[in-house]
Write a structure and sequence with these properties.
Layout lengths: L6 H18 L4 H4 L10 H20 L13 H20 L7 E5 L5 E5 H25 L9 H6 L22
Antiparallel strand pairs: 1-2
Length: about 180
């Protein structure tokens, strides 16, 4: 049976988030409190928000009982555990018979409902993760710490599904405009 179309997108989302959390595990309290202009907040607050957003998106998309999650009290180990559990949750969700036009309704405490098609909700979950992982990586760089390699090519390369091989073409030379 072929893999669902969105399996790699959400597999990458979880994998990359865990890699960023792991990269932050060695940071001390002062480093976790680092903020960089133009980002969500401190490293720890951004990581809590990133994982909290993931909890929210899954809760809305599954339409069931909300996952227990205390965003403000979560440490890095708890955030990692939540994301690790989300791998199978996202994979189950995207393995289903998805209709991108399904109206997914979020009931808000204000008494309003927000309607959005499933395709938009899934895209937002991925965008949210990418945006905040990038912000944490920027903060790590500001501390002089090399952020982990987390792009989709890295995700595909970890199990050999993305690779480069020679094609038999000549090596570019200094005279070659493509060099």
């Amino acid at each position: 049976m072929p893999s669902p179309l969105l399996a790699d997108a959400f597999g990458h989302h979880v994998w990359a988030t865990i890699r960023v959390l792991d990269a932050c595990a060695a940071l001390d309290g002062a480093q976790l409190a680092t903020t960089v202009p133009g980002t969500y907040g401190s490293i720890i607050d951004t990581l809590r928000h990133l994982v909290g957003g993931d909890v929210f998106y899954l809760d809305v998309l599954r339409g069931g009982e909300p996952e227990r999650f205390d965003e403000e009290a979560s440490d890095l180990a708890m955030l990692r555990a939540v994301m690790a559990a989300h791998d199978s949750a996202w994979q189950r969700l995207v393995a289903g018979d998805l209709d991108p036009t399904t109206d997914v309704v979020e009931s808000e405490d204000s008494g309003h409902e927000t309607h959005a098609p499933l395709s938009i909700r899934l895209a937002q979950a991925l965008h949210h993760g990418t945006d905040h992982r990038s912000q944490v990586c920027t903060a790590l760089t500001s501390l002089g710490i090399e952020p982990p390699a987390i792009d989709v090519w890295d995700f595909g390369g970890r199990d050999g599904r993305v690779f480069t091989e020679p094609t038999g073409a000549a090596e570019p030379s200094a005279m070659d405009p493509g060099a």
